[in-house]
Design a protein that fits this description.
The chain is α/β, with parallel strands linked by helices and about 475 residues long. The model has no long low-confidence stretch (mean pLDDT about 95).
């Protein structure tokens, strides 16, 4: 057959992977198999595809030898706070539970600027990519009075890095013991900023690289008019709604005392549950809450490292899955409470925390499902999270051939979740483009961005030390 001529098609072959874990509906696996993608779409999975395509006169732009490697969908980080990568590893926040930890955080949040948004995104989203993620959420909730363009700056950084991005324009609509008046926005401020972000950056189409969401960071239970306006806005523009739910015992106690119901039940009463909604943490749930989550099709995202760090508890992952919650993902949360944005580490801890806290365990395949297809479903996406023809070419290639994994190269899912770490990540493909190779980001200068982030982080803490004196000694030691 005549070879194709004058084709603009980029056709890449990944050849002879030890395993391909598709994470499709049947969790199909292929041994010593190949995958072909064209431009940004997966075309075929099978064996001896090179011979087949060459017989049809089709030319490969590149061939990647995957012997000694495991191929699976790119991981989906379903909950994080990018700017927090610049606010971690200092003594003032060590050993605190959620509410006192937040009190310190908001003293720092008063001084957030656009450069913090940009630098924080480079660090956190860059680490996500380097640990196998191809898609990430971000929930941006602190908006100091008079500071504009925070979410826009992180969207631009995500585009530069080449990661698929789901920024959520979040907010606080009431001051509290933790939230200062300067960060409590009115309905008009929230919706005006959200609307300009949606009109400029939101792409609802298949294979979209940026989808904007909206939602309250926490349900400020007395601001029902803002909640209603948020839901109306999301329905008008067909957006996903995201926030935190049932993260702390204090939140649960508050709704029980004031409304006579759990946080989940309050959300149900106020139309905050359903296929449009997904929430992080979901720790303090009873059996009825879990049933409500399942019956309404609401998404849940577990953030195990952050929950352990703040002594918040553990998400009922097994119970949610057993109840029929398919939209369930994993998030690295903010680095101020997880101290990294490492998806490989988050997966392992998700498995171990379930083992520690619940009688019914999750499996390694459950964890991989949450990190791929389940997370994609939580974000409202059907075009990513699995490897099958017609889906986006979002791929992660993990190298398990080194001495670190010798003796444990048995079941690939077990090896990834129980023994794996970021050293495994060899190649990451987003939307058909290789953005990580041999563990290095290809689109940015890592050393330059690292120095930039260090400078911006120090400047942030210097500003914050004026009203949080406990930071001063740590800054002086740098």
């Amino acid at each position: 057959m005549t070879k194709e001529k004058c084709s603009d098609t980029q056709r890449i072959l990944i050849e002879d992977a030890d395993w391909i874990l598709t994470m499709d509906q049947n969790k199909n696996r292929y041994r010593h198999a190949d995958l072909v993608w064209e431009n940004n779409v997966i075309r075929e999975i099978g064996t001896d595809l090179k011979t087949k395509y060459e017989a049809e006169g089709l030319v490969f732009t590149d061939v990647i030898n995957a012997r000694g490697k495991i191929l699976l969908p790119g991981f989906v980080n379903a909950h994080m706070h990018t700017w927090q990568s610049l606010i971690r590893n200092f003594k003032a926040i060590q050993g605190l539970r959620l509410e006192p930890w937040l009190a310190v955080m908001y003293e720092i949040y008063k001084d957030l600027q656009v450069e913090v948004a940009r630098a924080g995104a480079y660090v956190s989203l860059g680490e996500c990519l380097k640990t196998g993620c191809t898609t990430s959420n971000d929930l941006w909730y602190p908006h100091p009075a008079g500071v504009k363009g925070l979410v826009e700056a992180e969207i631009q950084a995500a585009k530069e890095l080449g990661i698929r991005f789901h920024p959520v324009r979040s907010y606080h609509s009431l001051p509290s013991d933790v939230v200062p008046k300067s960060m409590a926005e009115n309905k008009e401020q929230i919706l005006e900023d959200a609307e300009q972000l949606v009109k400029k950056y939101h792409d609802p189409d298949e294979f979209s690289m940026c989808r904007v969401g909206i939602g309250p960071s926490i349900a400020q239970y007395d601001a029902e008019d803002v909640i209603r306006a948020t839901i109306d806005f999301a329905e008008t523009y067909d957006l996903m709604v995201h926030g935190h739910l049932a993260e702390s015992q204090s939140e649960y106690n508050y709704t029980m005392e004031k409304f006579g119901c759990s946080p989940v039940e309050w959300f149900r009463r106020n139309n905050l549950l359903g296929p449009r909604f997904y929430y992080a943490h979901c720790i303090h749930l009873d059996e009825n809450d879990i049933k409500i989550m399942a019956d309404t099709g609401t998404g849940a995202v577990t953030c195990p490292i952050s929950n352990m760090y703040l002594s918040s508890g553990a998400c009922h992952v097994r119970e949610l899955i057993n109840a029929g919650v398919e939209r369930i993902g994993i998030g690295v949360d903010g680095a101020a409470s997880s101290n990294s944005s490492n998806m490989m580490e988050e997966m392992r801890v998700a498995y171990l925390l379930s083992r520690l806290t619940h009688e019914e365990n999750v499996t390694s395949e459950d964890v991989l499902y949450m990190a791929t297809a389940g997370g994609a479903k939580a974000l409202g996406r059907s075009d990513i999270g699995v490897l099958e023809p017609g889906k986006a070419a979002d791929l992660t290639l993990l190298d398990w051939s080194s001495l670190s994994y010798a003796g444990g190269r048995n079941d690939p899912a077990d090896c990834i979740v129980l023994s794996g770490d970021a050293r495994m990540v060899d190649t990451v493909v987003v939307n058909g483009e290789i953005v990580v190779e041999k563990g290095r980001l290809l689109r940015i200068d890592e050393e330059q961005k690292s120095k930039y982030a260090d400078r911006i982080g120090r400047e942030l803490l210097e500003r914050a030390s004026k009203h949080l004196p406990s930071l001063y000694d740590e800054i002086m030691e740098k």
